[in-house]
């Protein structure tokens, strides 16, 4: 009998690079490689990264993938022509949306919302209606659906149709009937039903979620098909999973029918990995700090679990999907430094992968954070990406000098330091939003730094906010890919109830829960999850009667009103600092179906002799934010550091694909797993 397959691969696409991580489940050895993102043909960048690893795909049992393809399709308006079929008289629900204005445009009287994804002539209303209790008021006009589809497809040229009827979350029969009619007439057209994606109240939000699904599904299906084909040609015959925005993963076949669940799948991999580390390292409260080429993502791990949400925002479009409560800003290694009325700005515009920062030598002309890091001495141009890519330091300096330093009357180094100061200020604001503004003291958290530029900035953020510890895992630029290796298979299901907790019939709630659980089990079975690895989590979405916002609490198998209320009040106190005597309203019942997978182990390494000098290979002048002056930095090769090693800043720890910058006033210790622990000197002592 041949040996079972023992290799797992995780690949994460970012705005600039593709990260590929290989795990050998027998030896626990991890290998990591990067390749450039290929925006025009994104699957090629994935295959390039796999090729760079040199993995024998015939030995791979699991390939797990995180992608921002759907997200970018919306942001760049590259989705397919999409139509909407809804109830007669309600064809403008999606176009009207909500009247709220983004906070950063509150006083902008000339603000205009971004162009809609769907033109008005691509919307159609048909007769047929359910009331607010799901009862049929008027039967669906089948001929009206057929005619609406004919106009949209034959006259308007749409290739994807979103179907969303009023109150259909209570009874999906009208939507399913409409889908049968459309598919019979136009089998080549993609049809997305709101009740297949989310069965919850709020017509606009449900319509928006369905439209986004229809908009990105055709290109997502083509992408996954091409990637599957490319992997198969190279000998892959294992299981292909794709990360979900709310953690966990799903098979590629399920992902093709639910692409909206993947829009934030890249950042989610890092959050899953962080939760795994929080348990393994005994740090129950963590702040994740992920800086890649185009964005900065931060999230709170509270009591060992990431803070979750059940609504995301994509531009101004709401998405009713489970997701992590991630704060994202346009600030990454490729973020462009520019001037506006004499003020230095950093981002949100990014040089991306093409042409990239000036120092890449690929035609970029505008200075970026990466260019500033080169000028400050943090990045060795000859060792970038483990020496596989030479950087043009003189070009980076010239661009920064011409476009930032001279207009501001600064030296080039001072301008580069200013770029980091602006980036740090934006970062502090993002972290405060998910900590201080929600009742958390960031000084009680550890900061987990990853992404290519995370370790570059994290020690500065820790000093600025008084965070006592920064944790830098191995291969931080590929940590999101590593986190994907920890992901369970997950699917979420829900039903809107809209009843007060005191008046709700518990037997009826139990019946609804069992119906949702049956759906969850069917989904897990379809994804080949054995029964012994299935876990079903029941949740209530609750709020005080009369409130707008809600909280999610986990319910036990036995429904008890007092226990449910206590769980809600504990969560409310933790989040908002108080509880009230008001009645509770149940909005939705939720079930999370989980298929447990084996997680990669954290290997305990033998302690060294405590002499970090073995890893010291150079000294380099660089800018020290601890003293606000150029200083001599000790440069260490991370691969040669051993558990028990310790040294003070200023120091640079180079591991090829990322550099940890430790200013003076901070100390580095290497833990038993080889992770770097960067602490303020007064905390370390």
From TrEMBL:
Tree of life domain: Bacteria
Domain Hydantoinase A/oxoprolinase: from-to ranges: 206-491
Annotated Hydantoinase/oxoprolinase N-terminal domain residues: 8-185
Alphabetical list of Pfam families matching this protein: Hydant_A_C, Hydant_A_N, Hydantoinase_A
Domain Acetophenone carboxylase-like C-terminal as annotated: residue spans: 507-675
Protein name in the entry: Hydantoinase/oxoprolinase family protein
Species per Swiss-Prot/TrEMBL record: Streptosporangium amethystogenes subsp. fukuiense
Lineage: Bacteria, Bacillati, Actinomycetota, Actinomycetes, Streptosporangiales
């Amino acid at each position: 009998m041949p040996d079972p397959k023992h290799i797992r691969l995780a690949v994460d696409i970012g705005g600039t690079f593709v990260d590929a991580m290989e795990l050998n489940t027998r030896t626990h050895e991890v290998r990591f490689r990067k390749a450039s993102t290929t925006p025009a043909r994104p699957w090629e960048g994935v295959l390039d990264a796999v090729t760079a690893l040199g993995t024998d795909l015939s030995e791979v049992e699991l390939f797990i993938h995180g992608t921002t393809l759907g997200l970018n399709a919306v942001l760049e308006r590259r989705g397919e022509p999409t139509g909407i079929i809804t109830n007669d008289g309600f064809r403008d629900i999606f176009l009207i949306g909500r009247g709220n204005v983004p906070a950063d445009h509150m006083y902008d009287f000339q603000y205009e919302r971004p162009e809609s994804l769907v033109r008005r002539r691509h919307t159609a209303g048909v007769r047929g209606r359910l009331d607010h209790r799901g009862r049929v008021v008027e039967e669906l006009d089948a001929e009206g659906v057929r005619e609406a589809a004919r106009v949209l497809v034959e006259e308007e040229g749409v290739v994807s149709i979103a179907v969303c009827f009023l109150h259909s979350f209570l009874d999906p029969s009208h939507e399913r009937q409409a889908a049968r009619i459309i598919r019979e007439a136009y089998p080549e057209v993609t049809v997305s039903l709101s009740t297949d994606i989310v069965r919850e109240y709020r017509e606009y939000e449900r319509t928006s979620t369905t439209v986004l699904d229809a908009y990105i599904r055709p290109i997502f299906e083509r992408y996954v098909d091409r990637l599957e084909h490319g992997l198969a040609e190279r000998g892959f015959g294992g299981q292909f999973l794709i990360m979900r925005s709310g953690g966990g993963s799903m098979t590629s076949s399920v992902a093709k029918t639910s692409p909206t669940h993947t829009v934030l799948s890249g950042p989610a991999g890092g959050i899953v990995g962080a939760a795994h580390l929080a348990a393994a390292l005994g740090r129950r409260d963590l702040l994740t700090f992920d800086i890649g080429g185009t964005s900065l993502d931060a999230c709170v791990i509270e009591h060992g679990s990431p803070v979750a949400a059940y609504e995301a925002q994509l531009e101004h479009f709401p998405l009713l999907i489970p997701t992590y409560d991630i704060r994202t800003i346009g600030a990454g290694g490729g973020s462009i430094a520019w001037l506006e009325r004499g003020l230095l700005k950093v981002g949100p515009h990014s040089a991306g992968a093409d042409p990239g920062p000036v120092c890449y030598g690929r035609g970029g002309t505008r200075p970026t954070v990466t260019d500033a890091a080169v000028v400050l001495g943090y990045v060795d141009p000859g060792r970038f990406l483990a020496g596989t890519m030479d950087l043009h330091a003189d070009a980076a300096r010239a661009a920064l000098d011409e476009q930032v330093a001279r207009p501001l009357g600064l030296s080039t180094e001072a301008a580069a330091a200013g770029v980091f100061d602006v980036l740090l200020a934006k970062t502090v604001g993002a972290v405060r939003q998910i900590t201080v503004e929600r009742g958390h003291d960031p000084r009680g958290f550890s900061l987990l730094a990853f992404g290519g530029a995370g370790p570059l900035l994290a020690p500065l953020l820790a000093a600025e906010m008084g965070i006592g510890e920064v944790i830098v895992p191995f291969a931080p630029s590929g940590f999101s890919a590593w986190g994907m290796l920890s992901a369970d298979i997950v699917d979420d299901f829900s039903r809107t109830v809209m009843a007060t907790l005191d008046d709700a019939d518990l037997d009826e709630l139990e019946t609804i829960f069992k119906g949702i659980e049956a759906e969850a089990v069917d989904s897990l079975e379809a994804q080949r999850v054995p029964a012994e690895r299935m876990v079903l989590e029941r949740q209530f979405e609750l709020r005080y009667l009369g409130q707008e916002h809600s909280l999610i609490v986990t319910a036990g198998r036995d429904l008890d009103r007092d226990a449910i209320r206590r769980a809600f009040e504990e969560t409310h106190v933790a989040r908002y600092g108080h509880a009230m005597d008001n009645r509770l309203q149940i909005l939705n019942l939720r079930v999370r179906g989980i298929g447990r997978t084996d997680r990669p182990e954290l290997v305990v390494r033998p302690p060294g002799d405590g002499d970090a000098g073995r890893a010291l290979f150079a000294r380099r002048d660089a800018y020290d934010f601890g003293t606000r002056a150029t200083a001599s930095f000790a440069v260490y090769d991370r691969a040669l550091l051993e558990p028990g090693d310790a040294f003070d800043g200023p120091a640079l720890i180079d591991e090829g694909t990322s550099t940890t910058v430790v200013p003076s006033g901070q100390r580095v210790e290497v833990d038993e797993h080889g992770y770097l622990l960067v602490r303020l000197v007064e905390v370390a002592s």
